[in-house]
């Protein structure tokens, strides 16, 4: 069943978009990531112009994340105080990030820099998560070591940040820590989000778990909460500045992804924290390898259409 | 040699003077009467391109036919050229291209080069070499290399051909001419063909000379939801952005509520 996308200016099979949306939505509900880091490259692979892909993905992330955020809120997994502090940083960082993007685009190699940053970030995050989860799983299989593991798993960095000024109580996360770090990580992720065109969950969730020291499930719920607002802001800006939000594309994607996210959240309850983390790590590492190959293998087309000035078509 | 120079100059100027007078004006030729199966293509929600059939009468029976489909407006596009820097492939230069048609399709009853001379082809912009001659490339970043023009042109042809926006078919089977007089053929308008006016021109040549010309206009227009979405996003971007966010949040929450209730059974 073919469907014509008005802003992308192309016709495409309805079920291809629905399937991609559903798959990414499932992962979104499971891991608490917006899914933009998977969705943008997938949309581009099926021929959607990059600018339209990124903007429409932001739009669908709003839906996928609000569905997931709502599910986690009902389960009591959102730390609103933490979320608002991170969000303040995210808006600051997003504004700075957009300026970086503007400078890089003028220099003509935005895509290249984007991919290099992707490879570095995803490689680092995926590698660290994979090693850590593997260690936890192996340790839990050794009798008697499980109790010791709980002690060790409190990150050293978390203890250091707890000693810094602007100390606050985060009841939901069961933490007493400085507000400086959540704001700083929000800012850094905001910059990355603008640079990479993603929600930033894949950086935010590990940072909240490993650096701030939040419980995995609270980190996921809180991250989804801040993603809803960050992506809503990006969607509005893209619609106003670049006019690249394809509402029809976003609607099909969100139809698939909102349903997928519900199944993801259910599956998440059945899996242990370290199992979720090792799965996410494998996906992240696979994407890293793919992007790295894009950078070093000879491209099939040396000449390509450059993005039109401020538009999708 | 030197004393011939003024003479050569005069002769040269003379040629320049004569050239416009010799220009081919297709509209002045005998009219090729044509009819299209439709003149308006509507882009609706399930649009996936369209096909328009054309019929015509050759004014000079037995003459050769070349039929061309182009968009009324030319395009201004930018191409990135990749090169190897260390182990990485990255954009090393960019070219702005003007004067290249957005879409360009030709049907001819036999190879163009067997019908008309290179000069005529160039003047009437028939065939890829004529396009190449007409379009202008401007280096907007990076440093130029001698084979760039060739590389960019080939790259453009590949991109356009893959989108089915460019195509040349020099085959009598594709352009049927009954008894040298009545001809019929069809053009496929791919989904990549955007809104706007397109022209289908029929050229008749006899012994390399243009003897007949006809033109049909086909308009592509978005209708219904497709039109509303496009118009709103272009003309009321703030409203469109807010709408997109509100719909997304509402849809997300709606599904959340439905599944939330379902989960409590």
Notes on the protein architecture:
The complex is a heterodimer of chains A (313) and B (265). Chain A has 313 residues and is mostly helical. Helices cover 73% and strands 6% of the residues of chain A. Chain A has one domain (2-296). Chain A is built from 12 helices and 5 strands. In chain A, the strands form 2 sheets. A two-stranded antiparallel sheet of chain A has the order 1-2. Chain B contains 7 helices and 14 strands. Chain B has a single domain (20-221), classed as Macroglobulin (MG2) domain (Immunoglobulin-like). Chain B starts with a helix and ends with a helix. Chain B is of the alpha+beta class and 265 residues long. At the A-B interface, strand 1, helix 3, helix 5, helix 10 and helix 11 of A face strand 6, strand 7, helix 5, helix 6 and helix 7 of B. Strand 5 of chain A pairs antiparallel with strand 6 (74-85) of chain B, so a sheet runs across the interface.
N-to-C series of helices and strands of chain A: EEHHHHHHHEEHHHHHE
In whole angstroms, how far apart are the ends of chain A?
24 Å
Outline the low-pLDDT stretches of chain A: 145-152, 309-313
Strand content of chain B: 35-45%
Radius of gyration of chain A: 19 Å
- How many DSSP helices of chain B? 7
Number of separate domains of chain A: 1
What is the level 1 CATH name of chain B? Mainly Beta
| Structural classification of chain A | mainly alpha
Shape of chain A: globular
Largest sheet of chain A: 2 strands, antiparallel
Oligomeric description of these chains: heterodimer
Q: Roughly what is the average pLDDT of chain A, rounded to an integer?
A: 79
Look at the structure and name the CATH superfamily of chain B. Answer: Macroglobulin (MG2) domain
Which features does this protein show?
heterodimer, A: mainly alpha, two-stranded antiparallel sheet, 5 strands, globular, B: 265 residues, alpha+beta, Immunoglobulin-like, seven-stranded mixed sheet, four-stranded antiparallel sheet
């Amino acid at each position: 069943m073919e469907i014509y996308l008005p802003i992308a200016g192309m016709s495409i099979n309805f079920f291809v978009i629905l399937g991609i949306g559903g798959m990414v939505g499932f992962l979104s509900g499971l891991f608490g990531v917006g899914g933009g880091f998977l969705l943008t490259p997938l949309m581009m692979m099926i021929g959607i112009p990059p600018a339209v892909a990124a903007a429409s993905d932001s739009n669908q992330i709003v839906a996928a994340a609000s569905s997931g955020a709502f599910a986690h809120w009902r389960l009591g997994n959102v730390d609103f105080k933490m979320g608002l502090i991170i969000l303040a940083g995210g808006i600051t960082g997003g504004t700075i990030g957009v300026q970086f993007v503007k400078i890089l685009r003028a220099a003509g190699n935005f895509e290249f820099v984007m991919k290099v940053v992707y490879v570095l970030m995803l490689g680092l995050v995926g590698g660290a998560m994979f090693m850590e989860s593997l260690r936890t799983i192996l340790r839990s299989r050794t009798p008697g070591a499980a109790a010791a593991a709980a002690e060790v798993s409190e990150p050293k960095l978390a203890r250091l940040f707890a000693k810094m000024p602007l100390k606050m109580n985060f009841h939901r996360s069961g933490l007493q820590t400085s507000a400086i770090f959540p704001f700083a990580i929000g800012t850094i992720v905001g910059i990355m989000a603008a640079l990479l065109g993603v929600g930033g969950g894949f950086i935010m969730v590990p940072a909240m778990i490993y650096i701030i020291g939040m419980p995995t499930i609270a980190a996921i719920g809180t991250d989804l909460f801040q993603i809803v607002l960050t992506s809503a802001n990006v969607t509005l800006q893209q619609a106003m500045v670049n006019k690249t939000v394809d509402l029809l594309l976003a609607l099909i994607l969100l139809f698939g992804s909102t349903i997928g996210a519900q199944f993801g959240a259910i599956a998440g309850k059945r899996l242990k924290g370290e199992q979720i983390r090792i799965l996410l790590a494998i996906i992240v590492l696979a994407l890293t390898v793919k992007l790295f190959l894009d950078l070093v293998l000879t491209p099939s087309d040396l000449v390509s259409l450059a993005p039109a000035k401020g538009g999708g078509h | 040699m030197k004393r011939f120079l003024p003479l050569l100059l005069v002769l040269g100027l003379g040629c320049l003077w004569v050239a416009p007078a010799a220009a081919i004006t297709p509209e002045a030729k005998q009219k090729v009467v044509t009819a299209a199966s439709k003149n308006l293509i509507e882009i609706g929600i399930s649009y996936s391109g369209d096909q328009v059939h054309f019929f015509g009468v050759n004014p000079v029976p037995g003459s050769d036919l070349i039929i061309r489909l182009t968009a009324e407006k030319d395009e201004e596009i930018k191409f990135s050229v990749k090169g190897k820097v260390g182990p990485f492939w990255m954009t090393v230069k960019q070219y702005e291209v003007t004067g290249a048609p957005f879409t360009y399709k030709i049907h001819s009853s036999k190879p163009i080069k067997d019908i008309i001379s290179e000069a005529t082809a160039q003047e009437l912009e028939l065939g890829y070499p004529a396009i190449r001659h007409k379009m202008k490339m401007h280096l907007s970043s990076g440093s130029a290399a001698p084979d760039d023009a060739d590389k960019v042109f080939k790259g453009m042809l590949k991109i356009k051909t893959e989108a089915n926006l460019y195509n040349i078919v020099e085959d009598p089977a594709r352009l049927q001419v009954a008894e040298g007089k009545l001809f019929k053929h069809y053009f496929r308008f791919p989904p990549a063909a955007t809104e706007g006016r397109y022209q289908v021109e029929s050229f008749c040549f006899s012994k390399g000379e243009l003897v007949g010309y006809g033109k049909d206009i086909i308009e592509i227009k978005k209708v219904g939801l497709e039109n509303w979405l496009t118009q709103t996003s272009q003309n009321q971007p703030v409203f469109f952005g807010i709408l997109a966010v509100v719909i997304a949040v509402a849809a997300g929450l709606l599904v959340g509520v439905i599944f939330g209730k379902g989960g409590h059974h």
